[in-house]
Amino acid sequence: MPEPAGATLYRVELPMAVGFDHPAKRRSASDSLVLRLTVDGATGLGECAPRAYVTGETSDSVTAALGEVPLDAVFARLRSTEPALLLAELLRSGVAGTFGLRGGGNLLCLLETALLDLLGRRLGSHASALVPGGDTPTPPSLPVSQVLDLSLDVDEFLDTRGPFHFVKIKAADDIRRDVRTVAAIRARLGDLVPVMVDANMSWSPEEAPGHMEALHNAGADWVEEPLAKGSWADLARLRGRTGPRVMLDESVCTPQDAERALAAGACDAFNVRVSKNGGPVTAARLIGLARGAGLAFQVGVQVAEVGPLINAGRALAFAHPDALTVEAGQSDLFFPEMVAAPRPAVDRRTNTITPPPGPGFGLALTDLAAPFATAHRTEGDPVWRPVPARPHAHA
Question: What are this entry's molecular-function GO terms (predicted)?
Fold first, then answer.
């Protein structure tokens, strides 16, 4: 008889050495769920980063939903189906279609990334083979955007965060400050580097046209999520005015959201994020919808991803290198030590990234992860059992 399969859930709340502020959230620690699956000696690591203001999910709600997932049926399918055939089905149908699962996007992302990683390790596959790809050749590296949040002064940002390929500015609650910031960046960088202001749903329909005009005059090319989530008609009217182009993020979590946005003519681009969009497979589908409609797309990140999600997002970016821009995150700045190794690197001399190494998504948990383990489930036992608390090394 084979050894029982198992799953361990980690809630990773790792303090950040540098905070990150934007209109929807001030963050000083990570809040990710990491799932470790083990079946017949093969291991897979998955991650999601629930954000209530984005999808309505939290780490608590995803943990509760995971308790309802029939993992024994998943384990049985992993044993009964050839890994290459199962991977092909997963890339075609996603975790929901392949395993008949239901749930929010972050739950599906947590499971899908773990299963893709496990199958990739079994097959010895590179990370690029674990996401649906386009027809564009994979480049050896990709440039990444730099994000100016509210915790950092614009002069320090310009002095320390270059070279710059694409700049995203997290909006303040004072449009005059945002206009000054855009103008300062334009004065230093010239006209060739695209500049986007991310309002994180903070403007009203009444004030947004004036804000867009002022930012356009200062040199902004894009505005991200300017209005309340799902304000399709108002977004279409705003987009129809002269000014920056509109990217949607929080409004586009599912393919149905994307189709509503396209039908309304509400945007010029999608911000695609693996966790928000329910895993790499659905994220790739959203890229296809954007591309088919003649829209641009960004491969974005959740703030403070801690491991598997970073490499899954990078695999997606290299599979679709025609993105408007790619966000690589700032894990090297946020976390002196990480719960997964090797650390997903950014070459800060050039602000570029290279493809994840593989096999799978190419990461293993470090000793720092152990104190964050919260629950374990063994095949044949339908109950998740608490993991005894251990002290945190950083405490």
Answer: catalytic activity; metal ion binding
